[in-house]
Amino acid sequence: MSGGNMASEPVLHSLTISQVMLNYAEAHGVSADDCLAGTGITLAMLQDPDALITPEQEMRLIENLMLALPDIPALGFELGMQYNVSTFGTWGFALRTSRNLREALERAIRYLPLSTAYCSFVTTIEADEFVVSADPSSIPAHLRQFLLERDLGTAVNLTRELNLAGRSIIRLELIGPALPYQHRIKELLAVPVHFNAGRNALVLSASDVIRSLPTFDEHLVRLLEDQCGHLLASRKIGGLPGQVRQHLLGSLGLLASLDDVAKVLNTSPRNLRRKLEAEGTSFRALVEEARQQLATQLLSMTSMKLDEIALHLGYADTASFARAFRRWQGVAPGQFRLQGKYTGQA
User: Fold this and answer.
1) Other CB atoms within 10 A of residue 8 CB
2) From 270's CA, which of 20, 146, 161, 236 has a CA 20 to 30 Å away?
3) Measured in Å, how far apart are the chain's first and last C-alpha atoms?
4) What are the two backbone dihedrals, phi and then psi, of residue 215, each rounded to the nearest 5 degrees?
5) In terms of Cα–Cα distance, which of 178, 261, 167 is closest to 207?
6) DSSP per-residue string spanning 107-159
7) Where are the alpha helices (DSSP H) in 195-282?
């Protein structure tokens, strides 16, 4: 058996993945502003491939989407089918280069927090069937069914994309009675759907999942798996980089030095520097990242003057801040605010 527990891996999520939801909403006449209301996510953050958000921010975005599109049958499944392997960057490419479908699915579960899933998943082999079971119990009740359906829809789409040799999904099993939109589910997924089952699961052919994939690359998959490990460690909210970010954006502030943060974390500056390097980052990089995040928020959500923002971010003068901001976004901070890139204002 192989398993993964989303609840045990609280991590920051890549905002790039959320663009799928925004694109879907826009195609159905819902604006990005409506989707992002109350999330603390701004439009320009979506242009930053390295932007990260908390699960709480993503949940609010999902709530907004559900409220905006209440009449679409099987909305969760339909949205899940919008995700593909390339959506997920390093995580997705690690799946694509796996030896076979079984290895890809087990690797997917091992690094599940790098995806968009909120369900926990486990795999089991039962006679001639390979079963991928989903447990949504850790998800807030009002989002549970929707996210179960979205996660299963995504799993179906990724499985189908990875298994280039042909179809291997035998059926989808769902706990509970048939849903009012059952015909739409079958139309979307193109697989038999069994209700009143004892589990929520994708059932695949055990022989199909061990067939070699034409995209297998032994060297590349090892490299990508190492990268997945580093990403997961760096994005853990309780992990060391996450703790440093919290202190920089919290009580210590961006003027804090490496020594200041090390003291709060009860370690030596040298040890802190070494551990951050082991997780693929540095104190300087985290400060820069925090400055960029806070700068864009202050420009879009406050009327603070540029010299006040520069001082708040720890720059010696406004010119230094302006140079840094131009490096991040390609325009001066004043121009950025006037263009309304963060708020969509004219």
Assistant:
1) 9
2) 236
3) 55
4) -95, 5
5) 167
6) HHHHTGGGSS--SEEEEEEETTEEEEEEE-TTS-HHHHHHHHHHHHHHHHHHH
7) 218-235, 240-249, 258-264, 269-278
Position 344 scores a pLDDT of 37
Separation of alpha carbons 141 and 164, rounded Å: 36
Rounded Cα–Cα distance for residues 68 and 309 (Å): 35
Let me know if 314 is exposed, middle or buried by CB neighbors in 10 A (0-12, 13-18, 19+): middle
DSSP element (H, E) containing 306:
helix 306-312
The alpha carbon of 238 is separated from its chain's Cα centroid by a whole number of angstroms, namely 16
- pLDDT, residue 104, reads 96
For 238-339, which CATH class? mainly alpha
**Nearest C-alpha neighbor of 328 from the set 274, 289, 280:** 289
Both structure tokens of 152: 């299963």
| CA 236 and chain centroid, separation | 12
Mean pLDDT by 10 residues, the chain (346 residues): 50 90 96 90 80 87 95 96 95 96 95 93 94 93 96 96 79 96 95 95 95 93 91 78 78 85 89 88 89 80 83 90 90 81 39
Angle among Cα 19, 24, 25 to the nearest 5 degrees reads 95
CB 153 within 8 A of CB 78: yes
CB-based contact 206:125 (threshold 8 Å): yes
Q: How far apart are CA 198 and CA 196, in angstroms?
A: 7
Residue-by-residue DSSP string for 316-342? SSHHHHHHHHHHHHSS-HHHHHHHTTT
For 2-210, the fitting CATH number among 2.60.120, 1.10.10, 1.10.260, 3.90.1520 is 3.90.1520
HSE on the CB side for 163, CA within 13 Å? 22
Q: Give the start-to-end residue ranges of the domains of the chain.
A: 2-210, 238-339
